[in-house]
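Quick illustration, no need to memorize.
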Amino acid sequence: MSTTGLGAARQPNDGNGLAVFAQGGGRDGEAIALNRRARERLAANSELVIVPGAGQLFEEPGALDEGVRPAGAWLRARLAPAGRRADG
């Protein structure tokens, strides 16, 4: 997982509803550390999901499926029409 874009996001949230979702494999300590540092610098709403047992490329059996679930839920919650936001 590349963290360059997230790490470079230093602009404060100007009320535009900016939200950042980052995800990392539990076995990719360097990417996790970079994402955590980047989140500290973001003024935006952000979430970091760590998939236990997954490496950088999520090649392990089931790792990609485990990563898709929280990413999909995060997107659904933010892309739902106003007044219809839900977790399901």
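Confidence is low (pLDDT under 50) at residues 1-14.
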